[in-house]
Amino acid sequence: MAPNLLILGGTTEATALCRRLDEEELRARISFAGRVERPVSQPVPQRVGGFGGVAGLVDYLNAEGITHVVDATHPFAARMSANAEAACFEARVRLIALTRPPWQAQAGDKWERVPDIAGAVAALDRPATRVMLAVGRMHLDDFAPNPQHTYLLRMVDQPKGALPFPNCHVVVDRGPFSEAGDLALMRDHGIGLVVSKNAGGTGAAAKIVAARKLGLPVIMIDRPALQSRAEAHSVVEVLRWLGHDDTDRGV
Ligand code: 3Y8
Ligand code: NAP
């Protein structure tokens, strides 16, 4: 039976995979949670919105005759990954994660690693400085207990309603970001400290490289622990898992 894939998306790798599946003329669709107003357009059909927990995802897999799921969500989308694991087990659908290794500190990096968002909030209990808080929108309220800082916030969409900080500046932009762009942004705002999730990959890495070049400290939030699962770190590995390895064509 020809594969009928569901890609759980929202990352640079998910987009690259969809492009390749389209080239290979493999039947696939990508799913987004509906977190932002306009998800990036994809070369395969897309669906937007939650499935309704594990049960909703099981129903979807059965109703759509999905044969394989690729969990290409962001490393911090832990709930979606856990649900995919449970639903694919129950629906007997093959599952692999397409993920990227965490960033590793390099020479010149001044990282202060914290285990989670709460750890980052605690680490901000320090004298006032200018903080680049590039963790998106969903967890901003958690950072309210440190109003002494001036925050540079970056979000995909214009925030609705008040922000939880007396002194902050919002940049509305969607990645992948460039090193030159983030260097200029951090210099223009006189940033003294960066807060980042350890997203891995390339799309969010610019601020980490810029911080290294500017000699700035980074509060680096470790990603949530996920159950052990089959993982691929490249599109080729996913194609091999599907049995459509491109080495067949000697490329
Ligand atoms: C909706 C879908 C692609 C995917 C691009 C990647 C790279 C650019 C960098 C900074 C960090 C942050 C944030 C970030 C990056 C990629 C990738 C990545 C970080 C889109 C997208 C969706 C989202 C959701 C959004 C979150 C937010 C997180 C912004 C598409 C653009 C901070 C994560 O307003 C909101 O509610 C935004 C929510 C989840 C985290 C948060 O807590 O706010 N991503 N980002 C997905 C959906 O609806 O299912 O339109 O492309 C995707 C991308 N964002 O195809 O090129 O692969 O990681 N996304 C973080 O890493 O800290 C920005 O500013 O430096
Ligand atoms: P999450 O906390 O793990 O998931 C919460 C709920 O959102 C899930 O239970 C599911 O709802 C729904 N959901 C999440 N991803 C979905 C998808 N791809 N398709 C359909 N429903 C989805 O997820 P999150 O951290 O909010 O991330 C949401 C999306 O943003 C994901 O696509 C992720 O890849 C992307 N993203 C997240 C981050 C981040 O920092 N968290 C960064 C970049 C991109 P139901 O239970 O109703 O099915």
Helix-strand blueprint:
Elements: E1 4-8, H1 12-23, E2 27-32, E3 46-48, H2 53-64, E4 68-71, H3 78-91, E5 94-98, E6 110-114, H4 117-123, E7 130-133, E8 150-155, E9 168-172, H5 179-188, E10 193-197, H6 206-214, E11 217-221, E12 231-232, H7 235-242
Parallel strand pairs: 1-2, 1-4, 2-3, 4-5, 5-12, 6-11, 7-8, 7-10, 8-9, 10-11
**Helix- and strand-based class?**
alpha/beta
Got a strand count? 12
Which molecules are bound besides the chains? ligand 3Y8, NADP nicotinamide-adenine-dinucleotide phosphate
Q: Unreliable runs, pLDDT <50, ≥5 residues? A: none
Q: What is the architecture of the largest domain at the second tier of CATH?
A: 3-Layer(aba) Sandwich
Name of the CATH superfamily of the largest domain: NAD(P)-binding Rossmann-like Domain
